[in-house]
Amino acid sequence: MTEAISTPTAIVLEHKGYQANVERMRDGSLQGLVVGMERDLLAFDGADIAELATNFQAVVEDYLADCAEDGITPELPKALVS
Is residue 30 part of a domain? Predict the structure, then answer.
């Protein structure tokens, strides 16, 4: 009998030049992390893809607004190597 091999589906989000990778957790929730940044950590989560995408955009917008409010230059993600 042949066994089915299950591989995770890759979800990559992009907003204003920031990209995030997403992982499905054991409880079924989704957690994401903006990639290509060394100084700052931007993480977010969601119960489904729609909520995840909304929270990703919000975390990027909040980060950019916080940087502007504090008078600092936001970290730009390093280019991803394919």
Answer: yes
